[in-house]
Amino acid sequence: MAEATEAGNEAAAPPLMLSRVLHARRETVFKAWGSAESVKRWFAPETFSIPEAKVEMRVGGAFDLVMRSPAGEDHSISGAFVEVKPNERLVIDMKVADAAGQPLFRAFTELDFADALGGTRLEVKQTYTLIDPSKAWMLAGAPEGWRSTLDNLEKEAVRMQGGSGLGARSVVHATFRIERAYDSPAARVWTALTDPAAKAKWFGGPPDRFQWIERHMDLRVGGSERAKGRWEGGVVSTFDAIYHDVIPNERLVYSYVMHLDEKKISASLATIELKAEGAKTRLVVTEQGAFLDGYDDAGSREHGTGLLLDALGESLTA
Fold first, then answer.
1. Which of 30, 48, 64, 216 has the highest CB neighbour number within 10 Å of its CB?
2. Mean pLDDT over residues 106-132, rounded?
3. pTM of the prediction?
């Protein structure tokens, strides 16, 4: 229910709040808000389009769009950036008008970006002021519209990272090493790494934002593992591994290929070493990756692996 304000006939409406984990780096998700060409590809619900846009990502810079409905009706969005904190926070003040140019409502939009298991957590808060209270019904579709729009944002961020839609051939190599210390014996850490039920507790996305499609593990030299699932926005990630060295409680060596949807994005060699330190265990992961055909990893695999190892540690205390 809209409530009248002191400014003429304007009325406040309940704010919209959404949280979504997007399968892309935080820097990329943030960057997707920063250019007109990018915003035109995603800032609209399904079946709508953005034929015109002006985006200047700086405090006071424009965020002006034309959103076109499937019936061809245009709505203008006139906005400005109020706060710009790179890769962390954006605030945009928007005013929406109808096809005749009559103002309908303001949408004060706060966006917070944070690293999360699986990619980037985006928190959206949109506070509405109805300039024409008789149009309150238009806000009823905002939650579904935003969900569809965030699906498009995720696809755009994946595209920007080279995860889809690029035909150029290229290879970029990267190596990283990560250590973790766990207050658990090596045998228990080994179980968390190699038992399918124990590994499912930490290897994958949040249960409310990730759905398993296929999962199997054959732990032996020459055995394979597959972990395939669909993220909330619809992106499907596939991890296909082959084990080359298996020494219980001490070492795993495996190679794996990653796909996003149908595109192969990387091929890697990984070594996991367990070193007993009394009742505790030091785990060392060393990985060498080849990132393929335009996929812009820029450290996201290392960061994501670190988050997974933190989740492994949490599973040991459960």
1. 30
2. 91
3. 0.75
